[in-house]
Each structure stands twice: as structure tokens, then as C-alpha cells.
Amino acid sequence: MLVRVKLPKGKTASIEATSVIRIRPSFGDYEQSDTVFIDYVSSGVFSIEPFEELKQRFGEHIRLAQLNSPVSTPVLLNADGIAAVVPPNPALHHELARSVAMFTTAFINPTNPTRGQQQLRETEAQARTILNRAAVLLA
């Protein structure tokens, strides 16, 4: 199912819901503020629509689990695209990361394979529980 989203500068994009792996608010100096990043198999876009609205619209088609980045930014993960939740590697991951969600190979973006994981503030057990309980939302 295609979900149409509003992009900056009046543009729109249609995204296959089942290809989405992650949705999160923008952050940092290099991303446009007040946007939401939608990460999907072949690419990613920044939407000007509210996080909660995108959560509802995509959540009607895929099992989205709401977790948090190591710095407590909310992040939605497609529960069906997570292969495992593993301990963080202190040499590679944020000091506040308590677990790392690893994407299945089907959800790793071939143009940017480093985006194949999401660091999380939740423990491994907490993250697994949240992922296992994720359900498609009612319209």
C-alpha cells in the first residue's frame, strides 16, 4: 500500500509502506528542523508532516514499534524488519545505547548499508518486548 507524504517545498512522495524500516524526527545541524525522516529500503525522505500523523498512517499497514534512540529521541521501527536485538559495542555505539536493533537483509539500503541498524536506549529485553507487542493500528 502506497502512503503519500508531504515533503518540504510543496513536493510529495508515495512510499510503499511495507518498505519502511524506520521513522524518526529530524535531529542535528545537518537535517532540516521540524521534519520527520522516513527510512525505507531504497532511500529515505524528510516529511513536513507531524510524527504522530505519520505513525498512524504507516501504522495502519505495518507493525510499528515505538522505541527511543540513545538520547531519547522517539524512533518507530518496522517490527517485521528487525532480525535481532544485540548488545551495543562500546567502540562503535553511543555511550548511552543499551541495545542495537539489527535490520534484516531485506531492509538494508543497498546505497547506504551502514543504515542497517538502530541504536536504542531500551535494554535488549525491553526492546524485544516492545517489538514483539507491535501491531498494525486500526484506521
Task: Please name the defining characteristics of this protein.
5-stranded antiparallel sheet, 2 helices, about 140 residues, 3-stranded antiparallel sheet, mainly beta, about 15% helix, single chain, OB fold (Dihydrolipoamide Acetyltransferase, E2P)
Task: Please explain how this structure is put together.
The structure is a single chain. With 139 residues, this protein is mainly beta. The chain has one domain: Beta Barrel (OB fold (Dihydrolipoamide Acetyltransferase, E2P)), CATH 2.40.50. Helices cover 14% and strands 36% of the residues. The strands form three sheets. The protein has a five-stranded antiparallel β-sheet with strand order 5-4-3-7-6. The longest helix has 10 residues, at 124-133. The chain starts with a strand and ends in a 6-residue tail after the last helix.
Low-confidence stretches: none
Indicate the CATH architecture: Beta Barrel
| Total E-strand runs | 10
SS field, number of helical segments? 2
Helix content: 10-25%
* CATH class annotation: Mainly Beta
One letter per element, helices H and strands E, the order comes to EEEEEHEEEEEH
What strand order characterises the main sheet? Answer: 5-4-3-7-6
Task: Characterize the biggest β-sheet.
Answer: 5 strands, antiparallel
Mean pLDDT across the residues is 95
Q: Which geometry do the CA atoms define? A: globular
